[in-house]
Amino acid sequence: MALPSAFLNRLAQIFPPGSLYTDPADCWAYGYDNSRRQALAEAVVFPTSHTQTVELARLCNEHRVPLTARGRGTGTTGATVPLRGGVVASFERMNQIVEFSPGNRYIVVEPGLTNQALQDFLKPHGFFWPPDPTSAAFCSVGGNLAYNSAGPRAVKYGTPRENTLALRAVTGLGTEIRTGVFTTKGVVGYDLTRLLLGSEGTLALITEATLKLTPLPEAKRTMRAIYADLDHATEAITRIMAQPAVPCALEFIDGNAIELIRRYSRADLPERAGALLMVEVDGFAEGMAVQIESVRRAAQNEGLLEFRVAATADEVEALWQTRKALSPALRKVAPKKINEDVVVPVTELPLLIAGLNELSQRYDLAIVNFGHAGNGNIHVNLLFDPAKPGETEKAHECLGEIFSLVLRLRGTLSGEHGVGLEKRDYVDREIDTGALELMRAVKRQFDPNGILNPDKTLPLAD
């Protein structure tokens, strides 16, 4: 769509030179994310204040111009791709710390601040914000909130929904709202804060967030357990999660992933390795030995081939090197992959992996699995070659069966990557008609003209 000249003139009044792009060559880079989908916006703006964001939303609503919020573009589901063109609002320049209250254990930040910059600011003060996606050095806090992205520490400390106290935001009408509280308790009104978290910019634009902080642990220890087969590894996962020393990370790598690592790296792994767990515990230094022993006992079974505890920083790095070798290996084994982040109850992990292996054989496609085992969040990597006739279609047919398997096991289609475009058309398999209609009504209440990130998150109405 071509933007009206009256709209563009007003947009230029709100956003001074250097904070508004209209040249397609400049806008192009803001039309994609890590899903590799691409669409071209007619304009890209860089808000620097809440007030600018309010004016922008009101202008777009008045002219019915689509408005897509964007953090740093690290998402994998196409949620920031401007399908209908319009305006992309890139919040990368709203990256300030507004208020820090160590006594009350909260910090107020703008959405463009990167996760890593936040952690770097907090560390000297003895705090951290628990969500820690692997893209922390690049992703923004606003993006973490929009996707409810968590990372490995969620197994102990929770997701953004458990670690965000309040928000300041702007609806699709340009209405300013404040949600939540500055305290860890509060039950006045409906919980709009948790509603906005994970809504992928379809309900409101977040301009400020009050984050709940956690004191840094005094010590952390890293362990690696290697098993002969999947069944013994998953038995250990359930036992580890049932003992008192709750891990701050419990990562899983299946046998297919181990074979890839062995083929494309020099990682030190036993020949019979069929599954691997990385376990970390944290807390007081004097309590580390007790926690390690508790995990060791829980991890022990007939299939355990090796249990190693890192004693130095170099040994920690060496243990994690196995996991770090996986992503480069995946890039070498196939030209294309579909990366899903499904979740099942922890006790259903054996059935999930067994079912994925069966689908891999039936469709003659490699499927490699790893992820956050402590809460059943597994990253399923479906590898294929789009240059082979029919293979792309075969991969997507297999993906549909993967989702059916997950739902049969009482799981969910996304744990932290969000829905965006990639999973939008599968959502009605998980959410029933009544709930979907309520969600669409909520969308209309926040954004009656449907300008905010249109065609994302919920299946398109018939």
Topology:
Layout: H1 5-14, E1 20-21, H2 24-27, E2 43-45, H3 50-63, E3 67-70, E4 87-90, E5 97-101, E6 106-109, H4 115-122, E7 127-128, H5 141-147, H6 154-157, E8 164-171, E9 176-180, H7 192-196, E10 204-212, E11 214-215, E12 219-227, H8 230-242, E13 249-254, H9 255-264, E14 275-283, H10 288-299, E15 304-309, H11 313-324, H12 326-333, E16 336-343, H13 349-363, E17 366-372, E18 377-384, H14 391-408, H15 427-430, H16 433-446
Parallel strand pairs: 2-4, 3-4
Antiparallel strand pairs: 1-2, 5-6, 6-10, 7-11, 8-9, 8-10, 12-14, 12-15, 13-14, 13-17, 16-18, 17-18
Helix pairs in contact: 1-3, 8-10, 9-12, 13-14
What does this structure look like?
Helix content is 34%, strand content 22%. It contains 16 helices and 18 strands. A seven-stranded antiparallel beta sheet has the order 15-12-14-13-17-18-16, with helices on both faces. A five-stranded antiparallel beta sheet has the order 5-6-10-8-9. The protein has a four-stranded mixed beta sheet with strand order 1-2-4-3. β17 and β18 form a beta hairpin. α1 packs antiparallel against α3 (50-63). The model has no long low-confidence stretch (mean pLDDT 94).
Short recap of the structure:
This protein has 462 residues and is an alpha+beta fold. It has helices at residues 5-14, 24-27, 50-63, 115-122, 141-147, 154-157, 192-196, 230-242, 255-264, 288-299, 313-324, 326-333, 349-363, 391-408, 427-430, 433-446; strands at 20-21, 43-45, 67-70, 87-90, 97-101, 106-109, 127-128, 164-171, 176-180, 204-212, 214-215, 219-227, 249-254, 275-283, 304-309, 336-343, 366-372, 377-384. It has 4 domains: 5-92, Uridine Diphospho-n-acetylenolpyruvylglucosamine Reductase, domain 2 (2-Layer Sandwich), CATH 3.30.43.10; 95-215, 2-Layer Sandwich (Uridine Diphospho-n-acetylenolpyruvylglucosamine Reductase, domain 3); 219-327, Alpha-Beta Plaits (2-Layer Sandwich), CATH 3.30.70; 334-418, Alpha-Beta Plaits (2-Layer Sandwich), CATH 3.30.70.
